[in-house]
Design a protein that fits this description.
By secondary structure, this protein is mainly alpha-helical. The chain has helices at 6-20, 23-31, 38-60, 72-81, 88-107, 110-116, 120-141, 161-178, 184-202, 205-209, 245-270, 282-299, 310-315, 321-331, 346-359, 372-387, 391-408, 417-432, and strands spanning 66-68, 145-148, 152-155, 304-306. The radius of gyration is 21 Å and the shape is globular. It comes from Spirosoma rhododendri. InterPro entries: Azg-like, NCS2.
């Protein structure tokens, strides 16, 4: 494993926090649409990120932040609550029971066995696919990549001050990274934040707010009182109704493969592997992820999961649990200081997130692109993660195409029995989605 220092780990932890801190505001924004109080979800988000990132650092000893998962919160709000008419308290109960399932799978090490049946080419592809995915997220946060009715996606005009600020920040951060300046990513975030200040100062607050950005001039207060009203508000027994079973299954399945792909992808990109070539301390990491989902239901938020943006800190040099501990501790003050989040706009962290895509492309060279029965499933997994905006979809089609192609060409030994079971769950998931 690459050597590291305490100073490097602290810098990496701060970098990871700055790349993931958006969840403090984004998660309550989404879940409040399900009828949960914004302030209550914000408190739950901070507490979950703090406790479970500490567990990841102290118990699993991995530099990975744990927080409420993006995508899972959207499923909670728009599918479970608004789409199926389930009460938000019942949906929180479903999150809890999904976590209990995870705990059982983790205690008996079944989830670790699931990782070991993922073919190596798919692991490499998933790592690169996650890199492309978070790069897309970075471009979207900067409003550089935008919706285009004619071509589906497009590039924003360069006369927009937000886009120009992002481009300058991206180039500055890239130069710092290439020159191997210590703390390059943090310096880039700070410089881009300073560059973002004139967006509100000279172009008016509306220019910033319309893009979901917050600039330094928007700070009007510092102290915010924590809201613990959602703790213990889950409906445990109501969520055990048969009609809620599909929601529990969906939470379990989606979180399962999101976390699996995150651990595999981050481990491959950051060389966080053990002597057997598997992700380091996998069982402990899986157990931490399971606790995060269970605790999320109790605290009052959607499922917790490992964050792919942890790759930002790993790229900064984070290799031990101290990175996760530092990042987790950075969340805690925002129980009281959440307005300070407006000092760092999304365009300031976007360059760092975009650059992580370059760092995570390294495993692609390990795929034998001349061996088409390996290359085609790997390619599908790689491109479908960003194109479908879903890590789970990339995995599903990577698994299914691998199995079909290998069986069709007679390479039965390359399709383990465990993979067939996973394929069955993939088919069930696709059918359930309609």
């Amino acid at each position: 494993m690459t050597t590291t220092t305490r100073r490097t780990e602290v810098l990496a932890g701060i970098s990871t926090f700055l790349a993931t801190m958006y969840i403090i505001v984004v998660n309550p924004t989404i879940l409040s649409q399900a009828g949960l109080p914004f302030s209550g979800v914000l408190t739950a988000t901070v507490l979950l990120a703090f406790f479970c990132s500490l567990m990841m650092g102290l118990y699993a000893r991995n530099p990975i932040v744990v927080a409420p998962g993006m995508g899972l919160n959207a499923f909670f709000t728009f599918t479970a609550v608004k789409g199926m008419g389930i009460a938000p308290e019942t949906a929180l109960g479903a999150v809890f029971w999904a976590g209990i399932i995870f705990l059982a799978l983790s205690i008996f090490n079944i989830r670790s066995a699931l990782v070991r049946i993922i073919p190596l080419p798919l692991r490499y592809a998933v790592s690169a696919g996650i890199g492309l995915f978070i790069t897309l997220i970075g471009f979207q946060n900067a409003h550089f990549i935008i919706d285009n009715p004619a071509t589906l996606v497009g590039v924003a005009r360069l006369n927009d001050p937000v886009v120009l600020t992002f481009i300058i920040g991206l180039l500055l951060t890239s130069v710092l990274v290439v020159r191997r300046v210590t703390g390059a990513i943090i310096i880039g975030i700070v410089l881009t934040t300073l560059l973002a200040w004139p967006i509100g100062r000279y172009w008016g607050d509306a220019s910033a707010v319309n893009y979901g950005q917050k600039t330094l001039v928007n700070l009007v207060s510092v102290i915010a009182t924590p809201d613990f009203s959602l703790i213990g508000k889950l409906d445990l027994w109501g969520s055990l109704r048969w009609s809620v079973a599909p929601v529990i299954f969906a939470f379990a399945f989606t979180d399962l493969f999101d976390s699996l792909s995150t651990f595999v992808g981050v481990a491959e990109a950051g060389d966080l592997m053990d002597e057997t070539g598997e992700p380091r301390n996998l069982r402990q990491s899986m157990l931490t992820d399971a606790v995060a989902t269970t605790l999320a239901g109790v605290l009052g938020t959607s499922s917790g999961t490992a964050y792919i943006e942890s790759a930002v800190g790993i790229a900064q040099g984070g290799r031990t649990g101290l990175t996760a501990i530092v990042a987790g501790c950075c969340f805690l003050p925002f129980l009281f200081l959440s307005p300070l989040l407006s000092a760092i706009p999304a365009i300031a962290t976007a360059p760092a997130v975009v650059l992580v895509g370059a760092f995570m492309m390294t495993p692609v060279v390990r795929i034998n692109w001349d061996k088409l029965d390996d290359a085609i499933p790997a390619f599908l997994a790689l491109v479908l993660i960003p194109f479908s905006y879903s890590i789970t979809q990339g995995l599903i089609w990577g698994f299914l195409s691998w199995t079909v192609i290998k069986l069709a060409v007679g390479k039965y030994s390359e399709v383990p029995a465990g993979l067939l079971i996973v394929d069955a769950f993939c088919v069930v998931s696709l059918v359930a989605e309609g």
